[in-house]
Amino acid sequence: MKNSKHILICTLLLLGSWMYGSAQEIKGLVFDLQSSQRLSDVLIENLQNKKSVRSNADGSFTIPGQKNDYLVLHAKGYERDTAFVYQDGVSRIYLIRDKSIIRIDEVTVSRMTDSRLNMEIAKAKNNSQAVETSKTRGGLRISPSRLFGKEAKIARNSIRVLELEQEQRMVDRVFTNELILSLIKLPNDQLALFKDKYRPSYEFVKQARKEDLTAYILDAYAKFKKQ
């Protein structure tokens, strides 16, 4: 009996150790942003634990790590990029070719990493500015071509698309399944409906404290149950 208990305890310890080890991994896929083609032999480095791996022939990779880690990706012919891992599941990371022109639309923007999104917002804001530096006369001057030109108009439209994506990501990272299920009990199909119907606004999330979010979710759930 003692031997049986000893074997059982060892088995449980090994199982617990295996489950813990499995949970400490980040799985992902690497794609080309424009073509959606999977990319092999991409070097992926975890900045937190300094571990590194290369993507497989199908673009997949597994690297030691966890949520809230930062991954740096290097691939020949592509710009270096940094990806923030903010949720469980398989991370889909899209890389941009060197010196390529990016088409700014909702689909393309949704695939960008946070660092790339910030870079594109800064670039679009710079292209939309009517004030430029005069190299010959010194100082600043108003450029009508930059104010009313096609490039400036495209840049201003791009800013709206890019900043909307940035705002949506902020809401996603606050209004999470984990937070909701820590306060209320909902099956998966009901959870999806609840999140869609009662998704908070960016303006609310931007200034909300933890207790504000808790009150918001509980109030929304009370309304949800009445339907």
UniProtKB/TrEMBL annotation:
Domain of life: Bacteria
InterPro entries: CarboxyPept-like_regulatory
Name the UniProt record assigns to this protein: Carboxypeptidase-like regulatory domain-containing protein
Taxonomic source organism: Sphingobacterium humi
